[in-house]
Amino acid sequence: MAATKPTSEKAVPEKSRRFRQGPINVGNLVGRLTKPALGKRGFAGTEILTHWPTIVGAELAAFACPLEVKYPRGRNNGATLHLRVAHGAAAAMLQMKIPAVIERINRFFGYEAVVQVQAAQGPMPKRAKAAPAPPPLSAQAEAEVEGQLGHITSEPLKTALTKLGKALQQRKV
């Protein structure tokens, strides 16, 4: 005889259970979503791509970007980092900075992840263009936003709502 659930307990569908946990931060999903594609290129995680300017500095990140990390078979350290550089002068500058780049990458990861860097000249990937700054709000629009928030006594809340109101007003313009 098979055990059955009492009829008073309803099975909660998986979808409802997920929504009960609250919203999911997209940033937490990025690693899980990109791992299969990046794993094929040798990037065990997205850290080297997402933190590249932090690791090597803005100057070097402007003309060099990581393409691939090749690990020796069966090992998680001692890799070769393949970079794309924008032009020949950038390659010469990178050549002088390779020891510093290796040291910064290994310090970032906390172990000897990379031991060699190889660079190839070619076109850099296109960067997303920054959105143009919105035009400043008129005095009338600012006064309207602040007038609607006059009854709020909490300063931090009033500051946050003022900032939100001004941003919404700028979208209308």
Question: Quick summary of this structure?
Answer:
This protein has 2 domains: 91 residues, GMP Synthetase, Chain A, domain 3, CATH 3.30.300; 34 residues.
3D architecture notes:
With 173 residues, this protein is α+β, with helices and mostly antiparallel strands. The chain has two domains: 91 residues, GMP Synthetase, Chain A, domain 3 (2-Layer Sandwich); 34 residues. Strands 1-2-3 form a three-stranded mixed beta sheet, with helices on one face. β2, α6 and β3 form a beta-alpha-beta unit. α7 crosses α8. 8% of the residues are buried. The mean pLDDT is 77.
CATH architecture of the largest domain, by name, is 2-Layer Sandwich
Largest sheet: 3 strands, mixed
What is the global morphology?
elongated
Highest-level CATH class of the largest domain? Alpha Beta
| CATH topology category name of the largest domain | GMP Synthetase, Chain A, domain 3
Record the SSE blueprint:
Blueprint: H1 14-20, H2 26-40, H3 47-50, H4 52-56, H5 58-61, E1 64-70, E2 79-85, H6 88-109, E3 114-121, H7 139-148, H8 155-172
Parallel strand pairs: 2-3
Antiparallel strand pairs: 1-2
Keywords for this structure?
elongated; 173 residues; 8 helices; GMP Synthetase, Chain A, domain 3; single chain; alpha+beta; 3-stranded mixed β-sheet; 3 strands; 2 domains; 49% helix
